[in-house]
Amino acid sequence: MHSEVRNGDSLAFEVMNGPSRDRIHIANMYAFDQNMSIDLEFKVVFAKRENPAGGTTRDFMALKNLQIMGVVHTDRTGYDFNIQGTCDADVKSPMNKCNTYRNFRFSMDYNAKLRTGSLRLKPMRF
User: Fold this and answer.
1) Where are the domains of the chain?
2) Of 22, 12, 13, 3, which Cα lies nearest the Cα of 112?
Protein backbone atom coordinates (compact mmCIF):
# COMPACT_ATOMS: atom_id res chain seq x y z
CA MET A 1 0.00 0.00 0.00
CA HIS A 2 1.51 3.33 -1.06
CA SER A 3 1.62 5.94 1.67
CA GLU A 4 1.38 8.99 -0.56
CA VAL A 5 -1.71 11.15 -0.47
CA ARG A 6 -2.74 12.97 -3.64
CA ASN A 7 -3.88 16.56 -3.28
CA GLY A 8 -4.50 18.07 -6.72
CA ASP A 9 -1.28 17.58 -8.65
CA SER A 10 0.93 17.24 -5.54
CA LEU A 11 1.88 14.14 -3.55
CA ALA A 12 2.26 14.00 0.25
CA PHE A 13 4.55 11.61 2.14
CA GLU A 14 5.62 11.01 5.74
CA VAL A 15 9.19 11.86 6.80
CA MET A 16 10.50 9.51 9.50
CA ASN A 17 14.09 10.64 9.91
CA GLY A 18 16.08 13.61 8.72
CA PRO A 19 19.00 15.94 9.42
CA SER A 20 19.59 18.17 12.41
CA ARG A 21 18.55 21.81 12.63
CA ASP A 22 22.14 22.99 12.18
CA ARG A 23 22.66 20.88 9.05
CA ILE A 24 19.48 22.31 7.50
CA HIS A 25 20.63 25.88 8.15
CA ILE A 26 24.11 25.17 6.75
CA ALA A 27 22.56 23.66 3.60
CA ASN A 28 20.36 26.73 3.23
CA MET A 29 23.34 29.05 3.73
CA TYR A 30 25.37 27.34 0.97
CA ALA A 31 22.43 26.66 -1.39
CA PHE A 32 23.84 28.76 -4.23
CA ASP A 33 27.57 28.32 -3.57
CA GLN A 34 29.24 26.69 -6.58
CA ASN A 35 32.18 25.38 -4.50
CA MET A 36 30.22 23.85 -1.63
CA SER A 37 27.68 21.04 -1.57
CA ILE A 38 25.89 19.91 1.60
CA ASP A 39 24.23 16.50 1.41
CA LEU A 40 20.94 16.13 3.23
CA GLU A 41 19.21 12.81 3.74
CA PHE A 42 15.55 12.51 4.66
CA LYS A 43 13.98 9.06 5.16
CA VAL A 44 10.68 9.37 3.30
CA VAL A 45 8.13 6.55 3.66
CA PHE A 46 7.11 5.27 0.23
CA ALA A 47 4.86 2.41 1.35
CA LYS A 48 3.73 0.63 4.52
CA ARG A 49 2.47 -2.91 4.90
CA GLU A 50 1.59 -5.10 7.84
CA ASN A 51 3.81 -8.05 8.78
CA PRO A 52 2.39 -11.45 9.69
CA ALA A 53 4.17 -11.01 13.04
CA GLY A 54 2.11 -7.90 13.76
CA GLY A 55 4.64 -5.17 12.92
CA THR A 56 4.79 -2.73 10.05
CA THR A 57 7.28 -2.87 7.19
CA ARG A 58 8.17 0.41 5.50
CA ASP A 59 9.75 1.01 2.11
CA PHE A 60 11.57 4.29 1.72
CA MET A 61 11.70 6.64 -1.25
CA ALA A 62 15.02 7.87 -2.59
CA LEU A 63 15.58 11.61 -2.98
CA LYS A 64 18.54 13.05 -4.91
CA ASN A 65 19.91 16.51 -5.61
CA LEU A 66 18.00 18.06 -2.72
CA GLN A 67 18.44 21.84 -2.73
CA ILE A 68 16.92 24.02 -0.03
CA MET A 69 15.67 27.38 -1.30
CA GLY A 70 14.18 28.65 1.95
CA VAL A 71 13.62 27.82 5.60
CA VAL A 72 10.89 29.45 7.67
CA HIS A 73 10.41 28.94 11.41
CA THR A 74 6.79 28.04 12.12
CA ASP A 75 6.92 28.51 15.89
CA ARG A 76 9.14 29.98 18.59
CA THR A 77 10.82 26.73 19.69
CA GLY A 78 13.43 26.89 16.93
CA TYR A 79 12.78 23.31 15.87
CA ASP A 80 9.66 23.52 13.67
CA PHE A 81 10.31 24.58 10.08
CA ASN A 82 8.68 24.87 6.72
CA ILE A 83 11.38 24.01 4.18
CA GLN A 84 11.03 24.85 0.47
CA GLY A 85 13.24 23.63 -2.35
CA THR A 86 13.76 21.29 -5.26
CA CYS A 87 14.77 17.64 -5.51
CA ASP A 88 14.75 14.62 -7.77
CA ALA A 89 12.50 11.82 -6.53
CA ASP A 90 11.57 8.35 -7.74
CA VAL A 91 7.86 8.21 -6.90
CA LYS A 92 7.26 5.03 -8.91
CA SER A 93 9.29 2.55 -6.85
CA PRO A 94 10.98 2.39 -3.43
CA MET A 95 14.71 3.00 -3.07
CA ASN A 96 15.54 3.61 -6.72
CA LYS A 97 14.61 0.17 -8.07
CA CYS A 98 13.29 1.59 -11.36
CA ASN A 99 15.61 4.62 -11.51
CA THR A 100 12.81 6.86 -12.79
CA TYR A 101 13.74 10.14 -11.15
CA ARG A 102 11.73 13.27 -11.91
CA ASN A 103 12.33 16.84 -10.83
CA PHE A 104 9.98 18.18 -8.13
CA ARG A 105 9.46 21.29 -6.07
CA PHE A 106 8.95 20.36 -2.45
CA SER A 107 7.49 21.84 0.68
CA MET A 108 8.19 20.12 3.96
CA ASP A 109 6.84 20.70 7.46
CA TYR A 110 9.68 19.35 9.60
CA ASN A 111 10.44 19.10 13.31
CA ALA A 112 14.24 19.01 13.72
CA LYS A 113 14.02 17.87 17.35
CA LEU A 114 11.87 14.82 16.60
CA ARG A 115 13.28 14.57 13.04
CA THR A 116 9.85 13.86 11.60
CA GLY A 117 7.51 15.68 9.29
CA SER A 118 5.51 15.66 6.10
CA LEU A 119 6.74 16.16 2.54
CA ARG A 120 4.70 17.52 -0.37
CA LEU A 121 6.06 17.05 -3.88
CA LYS A 122 4.80 18.99 -6.87
CA PRO A 123 6.12 18.16 -10.37
CA MET A 124 8.17 20.90 -12.02
CA ARG A 125 6.77 22.09 -15.31
CA PHE A 126 9.13 23.53 -17.92
Assistant:
1) 5-123
2) 22
**pTM for the full predicted model:** 0.81
> What is the C-alpha separation between 14 and 118, in angstroms, rounded?
5
Mean pLDDT by 10 residues, the chain (126 residues): 61 92 91 84 85 80 88 90 92 71 94 95 84
pLDDT for position 1: 47
Let me know: does 118 contact 108? Beta carbons within 8 Å: yes
Q: What is the pLDDT of residue 101?
A: 86
Residue 77 CB neighbour total at 10 angstroms: 10
Measured at the CA of 15, the angle between CA 35 and CA 112, to 5 degrees, comes to 65
Own/partner pairs, 19-23, CB within 8 angstroms, 24+ separation: 19/112, 19/115, 20/112, 20/115, 21/78, 21/79, 21/81, 21/112, 21/113
